[in-house]
Amino acid sequence: MNANMDRNLHHQSVQRALELGRGTDPAALAELVSLLALPSDELRRLAASAIGKLAAFGANPSAAVHALAPVALRDPHPQVRQYALKALKCYGAAARDHLHDLDDLAANDTAKDYVRRTAHSAAEAIREAVRLLEAGAQHRCSRCGRLVTAEEHTRSHQAFQRTFCDRCFDEVFLDRRNFDTKVELHKTIVARAGTLVQSDGERLIADWLAAHRIAYRYDERFRILAGHAIRPDFYLPELDLYLEYWGMDTADYKIGMLKKQQLYQQEGKRLISLYPADKPRLDTVLRAKLALFGYTLPPPPAAGDPPAPSSLPLPAPSVGHASPPQTPGVGERQ
Prior knowledge:
This protein is of the alpha+beta class. It folds into 2 domains: about 5-135, Alpha Horseshoe (Leucine-rich Repeat Variant), CATH 1.25.10.10; about 185-334, Endonuclease, Chain A (3-Layer(aba) Sandwich), CATH 3.40.960. It has helices at about 5-20, 30-35, 40-55, 60-75, 80-90, 100-105, 115-135, 150-160, 165-185, 200-210, 250-265, 280-290; strands at about 140, 145-150, 190, 195, 215-220, 220-225, 230, 235, 240-245, 270-275. The strands form 4 sheets. A 4-stranded mixed sheet has the order 5-8-9-10, with helices on both faces. A two-stranded antiparallel ribbon has the order 1-2. The chain is globular. It starts with 6 loop residues before the first helix and ends in a 42-residue tail after the last helix.
């Protein structure tokens, strides 16, 4: 919470931003833009994320880009900039006037690495959207095969990274919303930071990250490869690392696990995998695996000594998002 905001107002605004982020009404854009101007880093991040989602449902591109661009390029908080850049990317060719600024940000050595990578990714996606628009390319629905309009292609590609006609889009959207509901119902275990997780192993991981002041996002959808979208168990934005806890032993789960690991590898994403056998020695395992990516924690304190502080911020509240059913199934996990 920002010190300049009343605690109750902050809480109400956060809940409203989450509600709008789960909705599909493009008319919510105006309210989200107003939330984007509030002095809370958390609120601006949530509002930017929600504005990006509305691109798939017909939100005014010019108005959205006008609100997002200053935040993406100049917000003082790097995670807010990252989310605004991702949202700006969703509006494709409508953001073409900001390509030079995005290129400058991607090349800026003083910016966080993950902000620079996100700026580069946004610029590439916007250039591709401009190219498709200018080429007048024809596309077919990947589900039923019929030709789709440019508007249908843009809408479905922004939402799913696949091409659907309006009819198939609605069916796929409902399927994925039902899957999201199923996942949320399995989140019954409360970690110390208040995050609802699905298993004891995930609780231990969330508690360890919080104890070491490492910011994380839990179970947040991330588009990783054309045609696929995954829900990482944990994403560590300050380190640009993905952490998966593989807690089940069924055949279907293992197939999904291997597919998910392959997607990470194909896209060059940095992944830490943890398993039930790691739980008794979680501190040792996580320290060793983080060190492989260049992040070394202070040694554990001796008995009676206070823990050494980390330079990374406390984890922000996690936000659930819709996700496709092809990701590993949910169930009883260790």
